[in-house]
UniProtKB/TrEMBL annotation:
InterPro entries membership: AHP1-5/YPD1 (IPR045871), HPT_dom_sf (IPR036641), Sig_transdc_His_kin_Hpt_dom (IPR008207)
Record-level GO cellular component terms: cytoplasm; nucleus
CDD domains associated with the record: HPT
Cited SMART domains: HPT
Stated name of the protein: Histidine-phosphotransfer domain, HPT domain-containing protein
Species whose genome carries this gene: Microthyrium microscopicum
Length: 131
């Protein structure tokens, strides 16, 4: 699925109270805000063809999504980081074709947003059920 259960479980283990889950809820809902802001910045950077900014934003969101175990978002953000670094998907081979990279970035950002929307829906449901 969209969430690595053992990683997310470690966050849930930090909750003092399984009923209100105040601690993990705070982390998760902060991530939602962070992700939405980051995606907005990615859109701006993509329009400006600012590869370095896209690399940084991809790296940033990769880290915070990995912390929560959001594996699909993490993987897409890692690709965004690589493309922003003007590398191929693996991050090891230089990709000189900026048109191609921009096209890949466009697609990958769209995928990341879609994956985020799915996981956000699941997590919001989880927290409303446990409220």
């Amino acid at each position: 699925g969209f969430v690595d259960v053992s990683t997310f479980g470690q966050i849930l283990d930090m909750d003092d109270d399984d009923d209100d889950r105040e601690f993990s809820r705070g982390i998760v809902f902060d991530f939602f805000d962070q992700a939405n802001q980051t995606f907005a910045k990615m859109d701006t950077a993509l329009e400006a063809e600012d590869f370095n900014e896209l690399k940084e934003l991809g790296h940033f969101l990769k880290g915070s999504s990995a912390t929560l175990g959001l594996v699909k978002v993490r993987d897409s953000c890692e690709k965004i980081q690589h493309y922003g670094d003007k590398k191929d998907t693996s991050g090891t081979i230089d990709e000189p074709d900026e048109r191609l990279l921009l096209s890949q970035l466009d697609k990958t950002i769209a995928s990341a947003k879609q994956e985020f929307t799915e996981v956000e829906k699941e997590l919001r449901k989880f927290y409303s059920d446990s409220a």
